Fold:
Amino acid sequence: MIYLTGKFIHGTEAEVSSILQSYSAEITSSTDADCCIVGDIGEDIDGAMISKLRDLGVPIFNESEFFDVYEIDADVM
Structure:
């Protein structure tokens, strides 16, 4: 499960969710996340939730890093 926060260069949160769901990812709005993706634009970020997730040991990725590591840009471009 992936927690999303912030504004994304790959589109709206709904569009990014759709992209990730096309890879069978589940999106969550709670602390049961397996990872967190923070939008690269750097606005509207839920810092309190990031702190909670970090305290729980959940990996935090920035948008471009996540899309690069999992080669998502190669598929959506």
